[in-house]
Every structure is written in structure tokens, then in C-alpha cells.
Amino acid sequence: MNGPFRVDLQPAGRSLEASPGASLQDLLFSEGVEFPCGGRGRCRGCRVRVLNGVAPAHAEDTALFSESELLAGWRLACRLRPVSNLVLELAQWEALILGDESSFEFMPRPGWGVAIDLGTTTLVAQLVDLGTGQVLAVRSGLNSQARHGADLMSRLDHASNPDGAGELTTLIRVQLGELIQGLLGDRGGLCGVVREVVLVGNSVMHHLFCGLSTAGLARHPFETTDPGPQVFDSISLGWGEWLGGAGARVVFLPCLGSFVGSDLLAGVLATRMHESIEPVALIDLGTNGEIVVGNRDRLLCASTAAGPAFEGARISMGMRASTGAVSSVVLNGDGWDCHVIGGGVPRGLCGSGLVDVVAAGLELGLIQGSGRMKSGKTMPIVGSVTLSQSDIRELQLAKGAIAAGLRILASRWGTDLDGLAAVHLAGAFGNYINRASARRIGLLPFPMERVRPAGNTALLGAKLALFRPVIEADAAFSSVRERVEHVSLNDDAAFVDTYVAEMGFPAV
Fold first, then answer.
1. What are the tens digits of pLDDT across the range 463-483?
2. Which of the four CATH numbers 3.30.230.20, 3.10.20.30, 3.30.70.260, 3.20.20.80 does domain 5-89 have?
3. pTM > 0.85: yes or no
4. 112-271: what fold?
């Protein structure tokens, strides 16, 4: 056949049209297929199953799939190039994206505002009535930059290519513009005047959205180009007159340091840890783990490359917290019961499920304190979902980095872990993680009553910023930033030894 091929997606019941020999990556990304390694053929995260049609296996397919899996039709979506009509088994899902419905004190302002949490994986935007504090509409989605990799280093790698950074900047600006337009559309044409848009995100998202060079973030000593607040008008961003033209101020809040973004600054404001008398901690558990320790007098912050295990990436059967993911595991005698998001057939493990199953494996003696499985290279979980030895190692790397960073910051501040009055967990993973399991694997070695899921503190902090007049807001951010000292963990002589010690699992 010379014409375009038809690609049917099951069980979604949708059909796509693809040119002969063309990559299906962009088409399938829009249908929910993830490309954790940026389509480089290094992982199995974009696997799909060919039910009908011809799809020859590529070298990367044969390297990552067993012979039986290849015969069953499993292929890497990033390597699929149709030579015939295809029918693909593509499991669709709805991702769990954390918004914010917190109540807070505010000073009323006229007009409307938009608060945006620009995450590496997900985006959340809320339209807010500045006079009443009411959330008028909410929109969320997956970051369209993810087609170039699930983690920050993959994005930075793509940004180093000619026109790569510009492509990533355009992708996210266009997507957020459409998200805001959708918010206003949800009001059925009853549009107020949007006075201001406040965005928060990690340092890489900050630089890419703002069009700043990311070169300093891609190599040691990992320095930001300009960590201060960036101010735009809607026209310069291509968002048009429907957002109020030049009258709508668009602000990306300032970063706190290299790989410590405005999402953590927003978290400090949301948890009010900068007003605390006792020392407390704020942890954002993700690919780039961000930590703040301190009180109203002094705050220390750091980032640590935890890796994407908490988000299900680089795990053999890992996935986001979405339909089909094993999200929790509860011990039941000599075995366990699993909860699968959305019910139905289990497809893989998300971050909270991974932590739970390793904690359960430790309790049952199936996993040793060193992380080694007592028998075999894989451990059955439920259905066809399994845990591999390499999965445990990925979790150890992630939890070791967070635990080491927290311990070093506390020590530098002048206390130990027992001296922290509270530990706030930010973000979706922190909201859903089982605190007992996190304690069992040594990720959060605190009494459970001291660990407090704080929700989407980035989004809440962005909303708080909407209600501050410009001068007052800038002064508040400056006041907090002046109290924050950024600590480079890579330059700390104790980090490597602490990291290695924290990789093991604690004894019962």
C-alpha cells in the first residue's frame, strides 16, 4: 500500500491515519502513550501490543523484550513505523492529577487571576475570583514536553540540540495558553477581566518557559541563568487579547537555587514554615527531590537527583498513578492484597505501590535489608505484574538520595531528624504515599503523626501570590528568599557516605 495507513487503537475504539514508514511517536503521545526516555528506545515505558498488521521488530525491541513477548506482538511505540494497517492494544487511562481546594485568608482584589503549577509531568491551572477567593474553573493535563523525555535531564539533553530549547519553550507556552483559554471557556462566555497569571515550577520548567538558557543546569556546578521572577504580558506569550492583552501581568515566581524552583518557594509560603518557631521540613518527592529545612529565622534548601522511581519511571512495569496501576499493597497473613486504580486488570506499579510492595516484601522476609531478593530475579505481585531486582535498586537510589539530603540539611541547620517538629510532604506522590511503608523502607524515619501530607503546595502558593499587590508580593518573596540558603549536596563532603548508608533498608 502506498497511501496512508489506518491505525486502530483498542480498546479505545479510535482510529488514526499515519504515513507509510513515519514514526508513530507524536500520534501516540496525544493518545496517552508515555515516552519516559524521550523516545530513545532505552526503556519499555512506551510498550504497545500489535494485535493485527505488520510491525517488524527493531533492534531495540529485541533488546528489551523476550522472544515470547515479541511473538505476542509487544513493540516499543517510539520505534513503530507502519508498513501496513495496524490494530494496537493501547490501554487508555485517566491520570490522577492533584489540584488544590484549600481555604486561606486573603485580601480581596478586583478581577480574576490564574494560578498554574507547571510540573515536569503534569500541569494544573485554576481560575480564581480575586474578590471572593472562589475557584471558578480547573484544568489539568500532561506536560506536552514529555514526548522528549519523562525526566528533567532528558529535557535538558533535548534542549542542548539546535532549536531544541526553542521547541520546548513553544510547546509549553502554547499548551498553557490553550489551558487558560479552556478555563475561560468553562465559564460559558461569562468572562471577567484576568488581571494576573502566576506560574510556579522547578528550575528547568522555569527556564524553559521563560526562554532562558538551560546550559548552566545541564552541567556542574548546575547554575541557574536568572533565578529571579520573570514578568511577561499576554501578547508576548502569544496568548492574545482574550486574556486581557497587555493588561494581564504574567509572572513566573523566582527560583531558590539550582534545581530548587519556585514550586518550593510556593510550598514554603503555603505551609507557612517561614513563620514557624520550631524547625520543620518540606519535601517534594519527585524525579528532582527538593527539600527545605528551617524556621522563621533561617531556611536551608537543596535538591537531590532522586531519579524517576517515585513516578513509576525506570521501573520494569512502572507507570504513573493512573488506571490499571497498583497503587497500594496491604499485608494479609503471608501475602498481600493489592488496590488497582480504576479496578480491572492490573497493568503496572506506580510510585506508591512500589513503596508498599517493597515494604511488604521486607516484612515477609522476601527482600533482605541490602535490597537483595531472597529468591529469583523477579517477584510476582498480582496478575502479570512483577517486581524485579533492578526495580528495588532504583527505589533504593531514590529513597537514599532523599533521606541523605534531609539528614544533611538538618545537621547543617543545627538539629537532627528527631528535632524536626513536622515534615510536610508536597505533591501528588507525597499525598498518596503510605506513611508506614515510607517509614519501613527508611524514606521517612519519623513517627507517622509528624509526617503531614500537604497536598499541592505549589498551586496553593501560586494562588496566595495572586492576592498580593505587586509591590507587596515582590517584598514577600524577597523576604523569604533572603532567609533561604541553598546547599549544594554534591559539594558536601559527607553526602556520598550518607547516601550510601541510606540506600539500605532499616532492620525491623
1. 988 887 554 555 666 777 778
2. 3.10.20.30
3. no
4. Nucleotidyltransferase; domain 5 (3.30.420)
